[in-house]
């Protein structure tokens, strides 16, 4: 009988193979009263020692076969087995309550597992699994039960398990283990992360796989969409074989594109960048072949703390991003806070219309000291790479002039103090307010570049709060009004020899890309994971061909008309 | 006893990796070493203790060492904090 299940897509790819159930050994703990305390302590100590030596082996294997980074988790496991806060209470229990080691261990571990599971942070919640893994290993030794060893598998299989412990996962040999499905876990659980590193398709959190899938059943794991099909019919298998082939072809194309520039079919280069929030995100940008950072949201530096970040702290963060980008363009947006984004240490009065209130550049121009600190930090970091600064929420030319003047003042001050700063920092603005988009020709004479922030531009142009679901139908990226504004901004910048980028959701959208390319957008900035897909799409499009359609597209009346026009265009091409 | 304040700058806060390095290093010293965050104080030789605090990036913490080798212990911790990019 065939049936399907679904769970959380944890690692991309598709696999078709027989199910292999990884059963949890029976580790039932009974509380018993012991007589010989010394003997019980020795028994516990020996179980810990054996577990440690197993972990040392697994750690070594992992660092040889996978990476030192992945092996690090077992250093943590080893430290847990030396942890005085864990071992102390266990030996105390054995001594004072005269209970068996198994019971003392389980009680103490459960206390820690409960503590981690109740934490308000997904990463820390998942660490409960690490404690379970370590506890299970020691318990098995105490009970004299052997744990199934996934490294012994020598057939092509899909692992079915309640959960995979980190030590199970590293022992999976990708040559035989084609995929795995678990009842519990999430995208950030260790096994999910490792599946992505090993490039094994995985679906986690599927809840009922252990109770419904038998050993040896044929199973399809679709790690792209989180689907599981058990005992599929011939047609379904064919369908998934095709999906698998397409995915693999796409993957190899993307791998090749990773190191290439973004060039259209007719030889035009556009820049594909990524949006980031912290210096840690840069790794992902490089990994996905980003040519630039089109938006570095600096507000994360200010959030989740109790006072403003110092000039030094900010300099360090900005320099870190610039160094990692190694001379590639890096657009940093100055602080965009206020309105709905609050800082606990900055008491701002509640506003009736936060999106129309004192936020972003408006707040920075009111709190000049805070703004000057950020500008100084940016200037000091500028010597480490190709820095471009942009001001958010600019509505009038005066705002830009004021902000630019503060920038030049801080630059002059630093130079006077003998601090080295770059002389080639471009200073531009976000275009997200209709007034600025309309006046782009005037702005273009004074700014070095534009970056269109579509999320806000759409909400302000159509006067629709993007947090309000009842007006969500008005969030229309393809409304001709938006397209005309975008075109106006791009044209205005080119007339003055400047460039225009886009850093909203729209820049990575497959319907928007042909339109933006035809309009002459110079830089597209999106989430890092969308870059290769966009590069692949752009390499198949002809800029000259698309250009010839822009005039027609701009005369269309509705969003639907635009979408269907572009769809027809890209299908026939 | 000696004490030192740090700001956690590593983007992920005190996750398993940075914590492992700190705990493993601390365990080699005789002194009592502790970490204080949000008015909670834990033994820096205990990985579970430290991780249970869930110290985020940007947090300010205090480390104290007390014992015969406190100077050497603090120097080692300071070294790790900076070299591993954990905090400053």
From TrEMBL, chain A:
Top-rank EC class of the record's enzyme: transferase
Protein residues bound to Mg(2+): 432, 456
Catalytic residue list: 190 (tele-phosphohistidine intermediate), 503 (proton donor)
Major location category of this protein: cytoplasm
Pfam family membership, one: PEP-utilizers_C
CC cofactor: Mg(2+)
Similarity-based family: Belongs to the PEP-utilizing enzyme family.
Function: General (non sugar-specific) component of the phosphoenolpyruvate-dependent sugar phosphotransferase system (sugar PTS). This major carbohydrate active-transport system catalyzes the phosphorylation of incoming sugar substrates concomitantly with their translocation across the cell membrane. Enzyme I transfers the phosphoryl group from phosphoenolpyruvate (PEP) to the phosphoryl carrier protein (HPr).
Name the UniProt record assigns to this protein: Phosphoenolpyruvate-protein phosphotransferase
Organism: Paenisporosarcina quisquiliarum
Gene name in the database record: ptsP
TrEMBL record, chain B:
Keyword Cytoplasm recorded: yes
InterPro entries from the UniProt entry: HPr, HPr-like, HPr-like_sf, PTS_HPr_His_P_site, PTS_HPr_Ser_P_site
Domain of life: Bacteria
GO cellular component: cytoplasm
Keyword field: Cytoplasm, Phosphotransferase system, Sugar transport, Transport
Subcellular location: Cytoplasm
HPr domain boundaries: 1-88
Biological processes per GO annotation: phosphoenolpyruvate-dependent sugar phosphotransferase system
Annotated Gene3D superfamilies: HPr-like
Location (main, coarse): cytoplasm
Pfam families in the record: PTS-HPr (PF00381)
Role played: General (non sugar-specific) component of the phosphoenolpyruvate-dependent sugar phosphotransferase system (sugar PTS). This major carbohydrate active-transport system catalyzes the phosphorylation of incoming sugar substrates concomitantly with their translocation across the cell membrane. The phosphoryl group from phosphoenolpyruvate (PEP) is transferred to the phosphoryl carrier protein HPr by enzyme I. Phospho-HPr then transfers it to the PTS EIIA domain.
UniProt cross-references to PANTHER family, sorted A to Z: PHOSPHOCARRIER PROTEIN HPR, PHOSPHOCARRIER PROTEIN NPR
Name recorded for this polypeptide: Phosphocarrier protein HPr
């Amino acid at each position: 009988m065939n049936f399907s299940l679904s769970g959380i897509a944890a690692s991309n790819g598709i696999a078709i193979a027989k199910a292999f159930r990884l059963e949890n050994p029976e580790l039932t703990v009974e509380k018993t009263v012991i007589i010989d305390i010394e003997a019980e302590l020795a028994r516990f100590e020996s179980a810990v020692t054996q577990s440690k030596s197993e972990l040392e082996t697994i750690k070594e294997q992992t660092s040889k076969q996978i990476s030192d980074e992945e092996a690090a988790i077992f250093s943590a496991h080893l430290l847990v087995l030396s942890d005085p806060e864990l071992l102390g209470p266990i030996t105390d229990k054995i001594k004072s309550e005269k209970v068996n080691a198994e019971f003392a261990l389980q009680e103490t571990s459960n206390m820690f597992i409960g503590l981690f599971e109740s934490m308000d942070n997904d990463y820390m919640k998942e660490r409960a699994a690490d404690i379970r893994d370590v506890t299970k290993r020691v318990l098995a030794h105490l009970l004299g039960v052997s744990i199934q060893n996934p490294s012994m598998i020598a057939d092509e299989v899909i692992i079915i398990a309640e959960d995979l412990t980190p030590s199970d996962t590293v022992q999976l040999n990708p040559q035989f283990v084609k995929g795995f499905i678990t009842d519990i876990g999430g995208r950030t659980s260790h096994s999910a992360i490792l599946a992505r590193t090993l490039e094994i398709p995985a679906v986690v959190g599927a809840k009922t796989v252990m109770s419904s899938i038998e050993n040896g059943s044929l199973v399809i794991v679709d790690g792209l969409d989180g689907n599981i099909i058990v005992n599929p019919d011939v047609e379904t298998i064919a369908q998934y074989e095709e999906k698998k082939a397409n995915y693999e072809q796409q993957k190899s194309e993307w791998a090749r594109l990773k190191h290439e520039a973004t060039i259209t079919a007719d030889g035009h280069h556009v820049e594909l960048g990524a949006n980031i929030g912290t210096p840690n995100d840069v790794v992902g940008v490089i990994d996905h072949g980003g040519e630039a950072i089109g938006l570095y949201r600096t507000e994360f530096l200010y959030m989740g703390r109790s006072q403003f970040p110092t000039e030094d702290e900010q300099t360090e963060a900005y320099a870190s991003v610039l160094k990692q980008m190694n001379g590639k363009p890096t657009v940093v947006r100055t602080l965009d806070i206020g309105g709905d984004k609050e800082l606990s240490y900055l008491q701002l009065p509640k506003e009736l219309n936060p999106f129309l209130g004192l936020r972003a550049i408006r707040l920075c121009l009111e709190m000049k000291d805070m703004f000057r600190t950020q500008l100084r930090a940016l200037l000091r970091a500028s010597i480490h790479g190709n820095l471009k600064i942009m001001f958010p929420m600019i509505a009038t030319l005066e705002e830009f002039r004021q902000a630019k003047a503060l920038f030049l003042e801080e630059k002059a001050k630093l130079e006077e103090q003998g601090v080295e700063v770059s002389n080639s920092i471009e200073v531009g603005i976000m275009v997200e307010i209709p007034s600025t988009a309309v006046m782009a020709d005037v702005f273009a004479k004074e700014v070095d570049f534009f970056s269109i922030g579509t999320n806000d531009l759409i909400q302000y142009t159509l006067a629709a709060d993007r947090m309000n679901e009842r007006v969500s139908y008005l969030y229309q990226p393809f409304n001709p009004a938006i397209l005309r504004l975008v075109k106006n901004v791009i044209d205005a910048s080119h007339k003055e020899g400047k460039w225009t980028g886009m850093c909203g959701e729209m820049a990575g959208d497959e319907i928007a890309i042909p339109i933006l390319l035809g309009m002459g957008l110079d830089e597209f900035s999106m989430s890092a994971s969308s870059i290769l897909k966009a590069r692949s799409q752009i390499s198949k499009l002809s800029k000259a061909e698309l250009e010839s359609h822009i005039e027609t597209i701009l005369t269309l009346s509705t969003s639907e008309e635009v979408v269907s026009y572009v769809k027809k265009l890209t299908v026939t091409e | 006893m000696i004490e030192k304040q740090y700001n956690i700058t590593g983007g992920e806060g005190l996750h398993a990796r940075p914590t492992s390095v700190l705990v493993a290093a601390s365990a080699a010293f005789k002194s009592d070493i502790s970490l204080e965050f949000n008015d909670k104080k834990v033994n820096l030789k205990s990985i579970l203790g430290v991780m249970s605090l869930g110290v985020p990036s940007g947090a300010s913490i205090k480390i104290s060492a007390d014992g015969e080798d406190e100077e050497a212990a603090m120097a080692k911790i300071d070294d790790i904090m900076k070299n591993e990019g954990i905090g400053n």
